[in-house]
Amino acid sequence: MSTSILRAFSKIHNYSWLKLIKLFPVEKSKPAILGIAELKDKKSVAVLESAVKDFVSPNLDNSQIMRNSVMLGNLYMILNVEDKKKFLHILKDSCDVDIDALKTAIDLCYQDEYSDKSRLKLINILHSGRNRIFRQFVFVQDGLKFLVDMRADLIEYSKEDKTLKPLADELKVILSSWFDTGLLDLVRITWDDKASLLEKIMRYEAVHEIESWEDLHCRLSGNKHCYAFFHYKMPDEPLIFVEIYLSNKVEVKMHDLLLRNENYLMEKDSDSGLTHVIFYSISNTQKGLLGINLGNFLIKRVVDKIHCDLPNVKYFYTLSPITGFRSWLKHECEKNSWNFNVDKERVLSLVYENDFSNHDDIDSLKEGLMSLCAYYLSTAVDEKGKHYDAVANFHLSNGASIYGINWMSDISNKGLHQSFGMMVNYEYDVNSISDRYIGFTSNKKIEVSKTVANMHKNIKKIGVL
Q: How confident is the model at residue 271 (pLDDT cuts 50, 70, 90)?
């Protein structure tokens, strides 16, 4: 971009000249940091390896390590994907725990009867050099976001290169401490928030696509609310958000809820008379926080907030997709034996069907499909106690129970293909969350309502356990 264009842009939009130079560098070439712009040759790799080792020298104080960390961060951001992978390998191999020093420290602990001094020395040695670099980023402006994005890269790269996984795991430990729920703010997102934030809500929505600004306005209006977690070091980035619908009943169909319909856009002051909350979408926004479970805390914080703000609300449910049902049913159909009181051939034809523009075939098997789905949700747990359905596992692990199955609640193409249009209500009973959490995570016990229990009561053939 030419300097004359930059000056014109600056004048029109009130941007400072220096700020624009940073946003749109006039020079086309990459800036060289540490004398390196790329890692294509052995010399540049050797320079970086040497610099990284120097940067984590035990003789440096924290301020020096911070400056060095910023320098490394700036270098990382200008590299292409292949060079980033080389950079991460250098960081992993050059800054690992000193094994010889570790052995010496362990021996000292035994000799010194694990005194405070020997214990602290062991702890310090267990912190790798790169760990010191990572931790310094937290205190740099936008440094926490940089670490989150770097871990997102590591998660992606480690799919093909497993040797990078330990680095991703090490970053997860650091990020877990910084994204403790005590450091997160619960904020309600409204239509009055700045456009850049609303655009992120539209972009990050992972369950039910937001197709337009009008769609977004519908989801933030009347008795539809949206709540998000924010971190004070990433104030412009929602970390995870949940969308809810306030109602007087639990029987809600998703396609009706998402319609821009006045029946679903009640006045704000009517919220005080509503008794039910329906959680219908929850979306993680930061790939680098994968495995750091913020969703369960978000739901519980929202429950507490609504209890405080709207004391008439007594019941908390979800309206959730059943993501693994069709694949589970396909697996059951492909077994040599079929142990259910439902016509296998008709089920099999649906499992392999790709065109659901006509619902007649699905409707004709309504009772059987709902019974099979109830059986799936109530029993499909592996030997480790994890439910085969990812969404079910999430809610059951958070202390929810299975309340009801909704027929043809999600008639989108996605909903029909993954569960023949069915959705499930999970119930969060504030008085039973802890007991249900322990029951599922410790004993593989899934709590279901009488309605769901009756659905699959006779689904198995006589004589089959």
A: low
